Amino acid sequence: MKIMICGKGGCGKSTLTILLARALAESGKKVLVIDADESNLCLHRLLGAHQPEIMMDAMGGRKGTREVLKQAADHEHEDDFFKQVMTLDNLPGECLAEADGIKLLVVGKIKEFGEGCACMIGGISKAVLARLQEKADEIVLIDAEAGLEHFGRQVDKNCDLVICVVDPNYESIQMAERARQIAAGAGVQTYFILNKVDGEVLEAMTAGLDRQRIIAAIPRNNEIFLQNLKGQPLTADMPQIAAACSFITSYRKPLSLNIKM
Known about the structure:
One of its GO terms (biological process) is negative regulation of cell division. This is CO dehydrogenase maturation factor. The chain is α/β, with parallel strands linked by helices and 261 residues long. Helix content is 38%, strand content 18%. The chain has one domain (2-250): Rossmann fold.
């Protein structure tokens, strides 16, 4: 299963990606985390892994990547980066890191002033997800860039599920509903994880969302806050994360989607 984790900047999507990855791995799943956020610098630290070679850099930077993506458009073409069928076992090894049995693939990062937009990074993510075929016991979690642009680039097209992380913020709630509408247009179901929740804000957060789509409400957690602040591996064990993982492992993609725009 491929799951896109998205949300407003600062909502905690990277934190939730790692906590979900750890819980899923502990339940016996093989987990690949794809860092598809061009601005996130520390996902590997939250996992406790080393920084692997960035995939776009390994392909020769923007110039080399442009040529590789052109060749990848020919589905008969194979190289070190794009096989006709990609699996968790044949991804480019130099672009992978691993910690506690969880693999990490970093797509690309913005590094220099004026180097251009992140569209090419989105192109790599889209090409990988279109080819990646996971087994029944394998789960791929994609930490998306903040906002909705990944939908515009059709990166989510080959995902089975979108999970939108929502923090106590009016814009975050509105973005979550917009994400649901856009994902529905691609035939992908969206569910919500509420983050940084306490009793005073829970009712206000749920009022603006379809409650049947809320799979977990994560309380504020000082341990996670301090680990994040120090760039340490996230290790908090929370029953709400376990509940979200239970939903994920039992989820079955519907044969058809009743689109409501």
